[in-house]
Amino acid sequence: MRRQLAIAAGVVALLAGYVTLDVHDVVPGLLTDAAPRTAAAGMPGGRPTPSSSPSPSVAVPVAPASAAGPLPDVDSLAPTPTAKGLLAAVGGRLHDPRLGRQVSVTIRDGLTGDHLLDVAPEVPRAPASTAKLLTAAAIARATDLSQRMTTKVVQGGGPADLVLVAGGDMLLSPGRGNPDAVAGRAGLLDLARQVATAARQQGLRSVRLHLDDTWARGPAYAPGWLGPDIDLGLTGAVATLGLSTQRATPGHPAPADPAASAATALAGRLRALGLTVAPAVTRTTAPSGAAVLGQVESATLGETLSLALADSDNALTESLARQVAVRAGRRADFPAEAAWVLASLKARGIPAAGVRLVDSSGLSRGTTVPARVIGDVLGLASRGKDAGLEAVVSGLPVAGLTGTLHDRFHAPSSRVAAGIARAKTGTLTGVSSLAGTVVDRDGRLLTFVVLADAVPPGGGTLDARAALDAFVATLATCGCR
Q: In the annotation, is 129 catalytic?
């Protein structure tokens, strides 16, 4: 009996720990506690039906084996749901007390962009991490998503001086690179081997390693980010260089200075390869036109952005936004980056009334976005108006399978949508949101956005999350005509 009680107590403790971490947005499920605190200081498949009509652009994921019933194919000739039919089907879901009394919804045809059902779509609400979709749209518009980030070592001011130059990659493998990975595509060991070979060819046996991370360097933490969360490893510093193994994870905070940590790791690799490296790695600015002694390349910008959305990685999202914003002539700080995202929306012709961005990730309180704006962004992707954004949205987490949705859509009320919905999640204390695509019973691709920013404290985020999943499942099973 004592043993059974001890096991039960352990299970309860593990569950409590999981919920605590889930609330902080660090395990899949995106339950985020974002009560205002003092910020920490930091250094600056589906198969389209053949027809003469265009087919929806966003790919439909493959069903998991556990999904109930056969999945519909995307059919560009499938009947379109009506507002009356949709309201009859999901009206009760919209009044689910688990979502609270402040809910905004927009449901649209994924092929035409026609508004099928709107509920308070222009009301500014806290979007939490669904705000990352706006940042993704800005990045996709401003740059070539096939580009890669280069990390290199160049010759310094003296013959024995080596300078590690940060190029934006926060996901370097500490060992060999993996060509099939996104996190860890470029390898620090591969870079070290190139540099060691080049040093020996110059007759060098003893070197000094320096770090140049001056490009796009800015504040590591947004003013609205939470010091305790940073200390617990629940979010990390924004940088332009870092190791894939040092991303913030529960109980294992990311280094306060990811770039310096990566430089120290490179120094260790060089020593292991037989070079004598001075103990201290100092910061400097690489000489203009310096000879390159070695370099490695990251996954593409698009792949990295998709990973940031799939994992809802705030620091990685902010880093990518900062890099692209700086290339566009903006300052390397959170307000300038947020202003750049907002300007990008306006440049696309998306009305931005009610949009207030405090950062580029949605983690800071004070951000507001109407559901209509997020729906406009999804529409650009689903209708094929933006190939880059289309690819990013097609890589959003799949219900019940991947990313931050891997442990959702397993309940009886929602599992029918497993494998056929893709969505970006977002949750802060009192805020739950979901935005993405789903195929209805007839094979029609729909986009949806649901924002609830007055979630009652009782069941809180767990209950709100279940309500959102059930809402999407209703769309998946609805012909709604």
A: yes
